[in-house]
Amino acid sequence: MNGNHAAIHIENLRKNYGDVVAVRDLCLDVAPGEIFCYLGPNGAGKTTTIKILAGLLRPTAGLARIMGYDIQSEPVAAKRLIGYIPDHPYLYEKLTGRDFFYFIADLFGIDRGMAEKRLNEYFELFGLKGDADTFIENYSHGMRQKLVFSISLMHDPKALIVDEPMVGLDPRSARTLKTLLRQKARRENMAIFLSTHTLSVAEELADRIGVLHRGELLFVGTLAEMHQKLGKSGNLEEMFLSLTGAELSPEETA
């Protein structure tokens, strides 16, 4: 894809921590309306990539653009178009869910009427309406995750960047979220960049998959293309382990 038409454009991205190269010369485009799942073992560089895309880390070299805006040189314009869900979100625990939602809405310049409409929509969807006026310190991990998704979607971002979306969610909430992500991609043309260790989620949602290992992108493509590249059948777990050099033993595949 031409980077000019990508929702997320990553070009020769590199991040060093001293002598350690966390991300090595990464090039990648994610199209509007695409769900891209970013996979890799612990320490592969996935969270580093995501923090650069969200504007929380400065790359050693290369660039990242959101809808054409450079996240480093045009951070305000880029961040207006991003929804970001980290793996461990920070929330103001002495606020209620409702107050925190309105606080973030004010930061995005969303008027109170629209903010209330969006709060009702997402709190209803995620089953949070009964706890809207409860202090966040009393929320379970799953409730916090659903609150963060509600807040990250309130401003209709063009690119949603998600690190481990299903952590803490019960099966029903996970199903609701997967349905919502498909709808956002298909109906609203939202680009979704999703990092996960839950390979079944990637298998179910991904239009394309990227496999990162030791900072290098080993594969980008569809599941069918992964089968073709490896010249073998099997599920995503087996192919992922093969790509990253950790194939299952005969006992594990029995």
pLDDT averaged residue by residue: 92
Uncertain runs: 248-254
**Sheet/helix structural class:** alpha/beta
Helix content: 25-40%
User: Could you give a short account of the major beta sheet?
Assistant: 6 strands, mixed
How far the N terminus sits from the C terminus, by CA atoms, comes to: 41 Å
Extended strand count: 10
Keywords:
single chain, 254 residues, six-stranded mixed sheet, 10 helices, 10 strands, globular, disordered C terminus
Mind explaining what this structure looks like?
- The protein has 254 residues and is α/β, with parallel strands linked by helices.
- The protein is built from 10 helices and 10 strands.
- The strands form 2 sheets. A 6-stranded mixed sheet has the order 6-7-8-3-9-10, with helices on both faces. Strands 2-1-4-5 form a 4-stranded antiparallel sheet.
- The protein is globular, with a radius of gyration of 19 Å.
- The N and C termini lie far apart (41 Å).
- The C terminus is likely disordered.
Per-chain topology:
Layout lengths: L7 E10 L2 E11 L4 E5 L6 H8 L7 E6 L2 E2 L4 H5 L2 E4 L11 H11 L4 H15 L14 H13 L5 E5 L7 H18 L2 E5 L3 H7 L2 E6 L2 E6 L1 H8 L5 H8 L6 H4 L1
Parallel strand pairs: 3-8, 3-9, 6-7, 7-8
Antiparallel strand pairs: 1-2, 1-4, 4-5, 9-10
Helix pairs in contact: 3-4, 4-5, 8-9
